[in-house]
Design brief:
The complex is a heterodimer of chains A (about 110) and B (about 110). By secondary structure, chain A is mainly β. Chain A is about 0% helix and about 55% strand. Chain A is built from no helices and 11 strands. Chain B has about 110 residues and is an all-beta fold. Helix content of chain B is about 0%, strand content about 60%. Chain B has no helices and 11 strands. Chain B is globular and about 45 Å long. The chains are: A mainly beta (about 110), B mainly beta (about 110). Chains A and B meet through strand 5, strand 9 and strand 10 of A and strand 4, strand 5 and strand 9 of B.
């Protein structure tokens, strides 16, 4: 039981490049989330998916797109990376009843 | 708009002390409240979740309480150990909402 896994762990991009962050969970959770964490800003929700086939914007969705590929996988795409997207990105999933969230280990992204 | 505050931002205590971390929220219409721990450079680990109908939850040396009417939750750590050093975050889920509202965290250092 791996919980929530994220790939890659680290990534350096140049401005304008694109990439996809992958997230998978093996806990059969319905809802999944993408957050970014910046010093002094705390955790901010980018997008979430309440169930397979649905996605919704969070607090800071601009510059990002998501795909809920199936119940297990939820990916985050940066189409044209900007230095302001330098951050640590966390994926989380939650149980259907209590909505207790479980987090992945994070992806440290640097955009130069 | 719900706001979550954690005071103090940082706390340093000698090993063996019992301590209390505070979390306050402005809107009492919450679904549940969750306490997390984050080690430097790591993801978040769920510690305790309290449903809105509950008063407290316990796990080992940790006890979390919830007083909705006063908009407060406390995390009590008994017999603190250096391994308890981490940042502790609380997050509130509003009724019928998938999003968590996060506090900024309390950085705890336990001195040997």
């Amino acid at each position: 039981n791996a919980g929530v896994t994220q790939t890659p762990k680290f990534q350096v991009l140049k401005t304008g490049q694109s990439m996809t962050l992958q997230c998978a969970q093996d806990m059969n959770h319905n809802s999944m989330y993408w957050y970014r964490q910046d010093p002094g800003m705390g955790l901010r929700l980018i997008y979430y998916s309440a169930s397979e086939g649905t996605t919704d914007k969070g607090e800071v969705p601009n510059g990002y797109n998501v795909s809920r590929l199936n119940k297990r996988e939820f990916s985050l795409r940066l189409e044209s990376a900007a230095p302001s997207q330098t951050s640590v990105y966390f994926c989380a999933s939650a149980t259907g009843s209590s909505y207790e969230q479980y987090f992945g280990p994070g992806t440290r992204l640097t955009v130069t | 708009k719900q706001e979550v505050t954690q005071i103090p931002a940082a706390l340093s205590v000698p090993e063996g002390e019992n301590l209390v971390l505070n979390c306050s929220f402005t809107d009492s219409a919450i679904y549940n409240l969750q306490w997390f721990r984050q080690d430097p450079g790591k993801g978040l680990t769920s510690l305790l979740l309290i449903q809105s109908s509950q008063r407290e939850q316990t796990s080992g040396r940790l006890n979390a309480s919830l007083d909705k009417s006063s908009g407060r939750s406390t995390l009590y750590i008994a017999a603190s150990q250096p391994g308890d050093s981490a940042t502790y975050l609380c997050a509130v889920r509003q009724d019928s909402n998938y999003q968590l509202i996060w506090g900024a965290g309390t950085k705890l250092i336990i001195k040997p």
